[in-house]
């Protein structure tokens, strides 16, 4: 007699695991990380090491203290720490970098139940908290390769756009030869990482394209330079690596499009009308909160056993 095996859903499984997905994200972030460390030197390297180490140790310590099964081998803490470092300028004090990673892992992730239960992208929460609490210490942007007497604060490209200052040649912006955070400056490296993630099907292109496209169109309609707006600030970093977070973004295609459009609208409005030249982190955080609502109204509803009249008429 043939045995029938009954198991809990999901019944269709892929070969992907959390570790494989996170490893793909780490590989995709390597070009940006390497370029950022070359541009900003030893400070950037130390920031990356401190952020990643703090994230991993914080997750391990919390799980040990709370007697939770250890999951640091899934590499999610490494990704969070890496994103925290890449979202801060190279002049950020190391203790603030460590604090941002701690907040991201313990407060934004573990206190909500760990991976899969956080309501917002942990790296974004960590970054927003430290930039609000220590604004001056996290707003000192240097030009790449600046050292010694040349290591003075430089306005970011978004600040130049907002003030109406003369903009540099586009190739300099595309390659990241202007002030910014460690991971946002080189658009070429970010795009290379994004293409890799889309080609190996780690992420869908729906959110990045709808996010970037909406920001482009809206900034153009509101009289700003859309090309420089797209390749400046943390837009590409946020759209490719943070807005696409599996846990905090919609799972439906329609939901992803709505999510990306919402991020684009909020980013453009903050950049143009807000007191802050950047708006990516706040836009993604706001849309993270709306994700359950978006999924509720975009989830496909199927009633088993119910056939449409059209199929019935065709004899199907």
Helix content: 55-70%
Distance between the termini: 33 Å
Indicate the radius of gyration in whole angstroms.
21 Å
Strand residues, percent: under 5%
Tally of helical runs: 14
Q: What about the largest sheet?
A: none
Order of helices and strands: HHHHHHHHHHHHHH
Mean pLDDT: 85
* Count of distinct strands: 0
Question: Which structural class fits the helix and strand makeup?
Answer: mainly alpha
- Rough outline: globular
Low-confidence region ranges: 148-152, 307-316
What's this, in brief?
By secondary structure, this protein is an all-alpha fold. The chain is built from 14 helices and no strands.
Strands, helices and their partners?
Blueprint: H1 18-40, H2 42-65, H3 76-86, H4 94-107, H5 122-133, H6 157-163, H7 170-175, H8 187-199, H9 206-221, H10 226-230, H11 235-242, H12 253-273, H13 280-298, H14 309-313
Description:
This protein is mostly helical and 316 residues long. Helices cover 58% and strands 0% of the residues. It is built from 14 helices and no strands. The chain has helices at residues 18-40, 42-65, 76-86, 94-107, 122-133, 157-163, 170-175, 187-199, 206-221, 226-230, 235-242, 253-273, 280-298, 309-313. Helix 3 runs parallel beside helix 5 (122-133), helix 8 runs parallel beside helix 11 and helix 12 packs antiparallel against helix 13. The longest helix has 24 residues, at 42-65. Mean pLDDT is 85; it is low at 148-152 and 307-316.
């Amino acid at each position: 007699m043939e045995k029938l095996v009954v198991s809990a859903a999901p019944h269709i499984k892929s070969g992907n695991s959390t570790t494989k997905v996170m490893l793909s994200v780490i590989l995709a972030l390597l070009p940006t990380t390497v370029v950022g460390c070359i541009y900003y030197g030893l400070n950037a390297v130390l920031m990356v090491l401190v952020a990643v180490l703090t994230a991993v140790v914080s997750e391990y310590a919390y799980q040990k203290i709370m007697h939770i099964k250890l999951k640091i081998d899934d590499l999610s803490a490494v990704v969070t720490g890496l994103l925290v470092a890449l979202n801060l300028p190279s002049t950020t004090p190391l203790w603030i970098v460590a604090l941002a990673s701690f907040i991201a892992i313990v407060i934004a992730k573990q206190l909500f139940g760990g991976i899969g239960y956080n309501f917002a992208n942990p790296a974004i929460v960590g970054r927003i908290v430290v930039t609000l609490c220590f604004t001056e210490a996290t707003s000192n942007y240097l030009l790449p390769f600046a050292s010694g007497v040349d290591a003075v604060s430089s306005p970011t490209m978004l600040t130049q756009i907002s003030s109406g200052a003369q903009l540099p040649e586009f190739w300099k912006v595309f390659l990241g030869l202007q002030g910014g955070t460690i991971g946002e400056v080189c658009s070429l490296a970010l795009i290379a990482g994004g293409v890799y993630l889309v080609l190996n099907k780690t992420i869908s292109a729906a959110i990045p394209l709808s996010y970037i496209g909406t920001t482009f169109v809206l900034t153009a309609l509101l009289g700003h330079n859309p090309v420089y707006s797209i390749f400046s600030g943390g837009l590409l970093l946020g759209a490719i690596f943070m807005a696409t977070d599996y846990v905090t973004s919609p799972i439906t295609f329609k939901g992803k499009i709505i999510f990306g459009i919402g991020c684009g609208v909020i980013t453009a409005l903050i950049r143009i009308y807000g007191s802050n030249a950047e708006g990516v982190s706040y836009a993604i955080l706001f849309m993270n909160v709306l994700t359950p609502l978006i999924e509720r109204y975009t989830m496909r509803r199927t009633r088993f056993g119910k056939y449409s009249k059209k199929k019935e008429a065709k004899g199907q």
